Amino acid sequence: MISRRRALAFAAAAPLLTRCLFDRSAVRVGSKNFTESFVIAEIYAQSLESSGMHVERLFNLGSTQIAIAAMQRGNIDLYPEYTGTALIDVLHLPPISNSRAAFDVVARAFRQRYGIVWLTPSPMNDSQALATTRAVAARHGLATLSDCARAASRLRLATIQEFLARPDGLPGLQRYYGGFAFRQIRTYDIALKYRALLEGAADVASAFSTDGAIATDGLVVLRDDRHFWSAYNVAPVVRAPALAARPQIAAVLDAVSPRITDRTAQMMNAQVEHAQADPADVAAAFLKR
What we know:
Number of domains: 2
Mean pLDDT: 91
Strand order of the largest sheet: 7-6-8-5-9
Order of helices and strands: EHEHEHHEEHHEHEHEHEEHHHH
Distance between the termini: 31 Å
CATH architecture of the largest domain: 3-Layer(aba) Sandwich
Number of strands: 10
Shape: globular
CATH topology of the largest domain: D-Maltodextrin-Binding Protein, domain 2
Largest sheet: 5 strands, mixed
Radius of gyration: 19 Å
């Protein structure tokens, strides 16, 4: 999947996966290397701890491929994964916009191929998106991706380089919707594309639907009215042997996952990325609520 948002440099949290000794009595919770993954992994870890389990955190693993390799080696027992990432980047299958259908495909394939079990997914769907300001949306009549496809010749797009090449990025939008011939396209670092939007240097920005900036800056996410983009619901994925050894993991995480919504994720991401809160504190506040 496209690099989702600015990664945090928590050097102290980065695991040394080549080390020989792990605490085999602990549930080893991993995360990838971006804000949302840190926060959700903390929610999982703290939930397990509150149920009496001993947890070892091995966060900031890096890419999806590294996380899956760590699972296969037994270096971690579980981590948060997205159905769309598993579907497109791991299984190399076409996007599936229906959340239930996407989950069923990846759950079955991961169990058969990797011995990894998908637990209950969250309603939070961190799908790809296009976002704009309320002023631009009103000026150009933008509410849906179809609206944007038609108006693109008058609009400037701020995006990251990868969005311009991926089949589920701009090329896919152009094939599926038609149009999307933007007046100007400029690429930015992940953290700077929203600044371009807010400062008037762009009219539309590529986004992910749970980005913190959507909440803090009051942005409008254009509705995917023709259901092009894949579902990206997050869920705990657990090594089957770890789950067999501690079946209570499923009960604990299945109870918390339904509480993680799009709006909740936006606010938690914003607290970390804009207010510099610690992901562990943000996760604790979420669980207290």
